[in-house]
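Two quick folds needed for the group meeting slides. Do the first one here.
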Amino acid sequence: MMTQIAQPNPAQNPFLPSQFTAPKRLPAIIKRAVGVGLSVGVLVNAASANVGLNEPQASNALNLPSGNLLNDAPNNSPNDAPISTAMMAQNPAKSSSTVRDFAKNSLNNQSLNLNSSQAQNYGNFGDAARLDGGFSLPSVRFSANAHAQNLQNSANLGVSAANPSAVNFTTPNLSAGANFQEQRRNKEIAAWSLRQINASLPLIDDPWAVQQLVQMGAQMNALVRGQSLLSVVLINDSNINAFAVPGGLIGMNAGTILSADALDEVASVMAHEIAHLSQRHYEHNLDNRKKFLAIGLGGLLAAIAASAASGDAAAAMMIGAQTMGAESMAAHSREHEREADRVGQQILAQAGFDAKAMPRFFQQLQRQVSLNRTANAFAPSFMRSHPFTTERLSESTQRAANFTAPTMTQKQAQAQAFDALYWRLNYLSKQANETELRVNAKHSKGAQLALAMYLADNQRHQEAQSVYQAGQFDSDDVLACITAAHLAAAKQDYQQAVDVLAPCQAIYPERRDLRLYLAQHAINAGDFAKALNLLSPLTFDGSHDVLAWDLSQKAYTLQANHAQNTHAQTIATIHALRARSQLLLWRGQYEGALQANAQAAMHARTDNATMLLTMLDNDKAAIVSARDFKP
């Protein structure tokens, strides 16, 4: 008996988790000061990330049907939940031809003067940085030239035109000094950290929002590091914080973006964290690195557990974790923070952003800390142990005077990109209500798109369509295309959603976000082959793109249900179980991953699928290695 395609509840937003909940917020007096990431810069700093992001995870990701080979799959544990595959979005609205032309031609005028190693790293980021539920560049395997075209088409808004700065600053690159063994170790640590984060933190896994940060990070990373970033994760927390992990993992709280006034302020945080990586601040001393991982991650996970019971308890626990980390590294952190500020500001300017954004953001953070102290609220001692006040602010202000400001065209493009990202995150994190969206939609394209989604998700389809049409968005505006497809999907017209999004995806085939959105709509429309073709470049061996693995699992499961013969059903079942195994691996559920792998191997032996069996054996070895890894 064939199982019908599951249709989403029309009352729910198909791009949001079915159990998405707004983050638990700390008292207003401390919500934006606890866990300031600019003074952290590493995983221990993630302890300050008072989380409130991803949805609870407690459903069966495979949805095993009755009456076919998938009945042999293992049962799920309570923690064995699928990540949300429907949280999706797209690129900044380019409402004027001037901005669009600048974005598409920005690389032609750039003067970043990348060396060959950096250029290769930049071009191959999508091939090397395997995406997970967090941020990363499109992981489609194209040539470096194709990646360059992608950066043009995707409005690489940070690339500087003619002169990125008045003075030719050279950012020190220490990453080349790491030997092969150290680089491998760091990659393992970053992958281990990513699995822990996927398993424990509430993440905003909206593909479009993630891609904006990933592109920004990849551009800056290519200026100073010889290794690509592993991933960027967006944490659903209202506090200001960011962190970096040796091996190229960067995390940022949604609150960092929602607290900023401009894209260059967000970029200043990203540049600071990349500077920590490029200068290898947490690799010089192995003992200190271990302390950071043990204290920082342990404190972070403890804070997550505490947040379920009390926001104040979570804040106290985060501060305690920060304090322990600060005490263990006080002798090193001061100089490292100064250097990360200095190198980060140079990266910021070379990437085409305003160097004055860093001291502006420092001033905002300083005001929050002062407010906390005045109100006798939590005052993280980690901040007090770092040169975060007048000294860092004064130094960054003086340095900013040496850099040339971005052009007006760059500023306009960055302003539109920030507008789209800001309101997208406001919508996804449930921070904005209808009244606020309506008021701002009068002068904001980003708010207009967010309002259209809000109305569609509340079954007010005619209003949603009217709001969208009033925007008169360009046909090649990626975020507008994604939103238009979303409006169709909200009415359960999945074929129309495919028809709307397919032309846009054909223009930008290298974009990860468009592949994921289109694959989701194709699955709902019953075109499983199309969905799997779109997902194939994202689910290669070693990929940590949990959204892609989740969608692949669903597509193969439905394909098995609709197979015309036993052999086709078995092959689809094997692939579904393998995708499930990889999904569980990158969510840190190792035993479940091994069980799914064993089920897939059993079917492969039954069908004498030798090549698939070899692949599954390799997968098993990788799962065991990941399970046994100790940082």
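Then this one, please, same format:
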Amino acid sequence: MAATSSSSSTNNGVHEVFLSFRGEDTRKTFTSHLHAAFKRFEIRTYIDYNLERGDEISGTLLRAIEDAKLSVIVFSKNFASSRWCLEEVKKIIDCKKTRGQMVLPIFYDVEPSIVRYQTGSFATAFARHEERFRDSDRPNKKIQKWRDALAEAATFSGWDCSVDRLESEIVEEIAMDVLNKLNRVYVGDLDKEIARYDQLAKHQMQYFQGSPHPLHYQNYKDSLNRIRKLQMERHQRLLRIPPNMYSQADDLNNNNTNIDNGIYNLWSNVFRF
């Protein structure tokens, strides 16, 4: 991660999620795909793609972690080799304890047990940290805090990306999981579909008026029905109606055909087709 926030993705400086990751491992792969999914679901995310600078985490980054409702940590093979990343995790765990911040670990190309017990590549990384701090007055406390933070973060319920699945599917599901944890609902995809069918229906109506024909009217009616179903699905998401109740309501609407038939008969009499 970087010391500046110039490339962070936020709305007027307000973000819901802080995304922690090891740049050299996942910046151009998994993390970029995950960030793109967050954008699609309109999840305001603090992320910085710049390179790390120095040993100390910046005040800007500390405040960004504090302001987040949820922190997503993308653990990867070389995550522990970055003192910057370790400081982020320590701060995230502190915020969980003091602010009730939610934490979602993601294990990408690394087993959760390796993170929790600092074995494998994490053991190698910590050996280097201990060597570097050997002559320092504060090595043991600092390194132990990093170890404790990693161990705790690895115990939280999260996502293991080592499973044999498409990465595109996993990032979409993670984005949905984050939405649920934030107690938010996404309807942007439905709004776009409703707008598209609304435009289509207007064009179909104009075409029908210029060239009245039963098929033209049917196309128009199909578009209106599609809009109705999309609007119902939108309400279902916003109100969080159980799927079985939604399907029952949809059946009732489908059975109520007398209004549509009445409209069709009216058009038939007017245009005599």
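Slide caption for protein two: The chain is about 60% helix and 10% strand.
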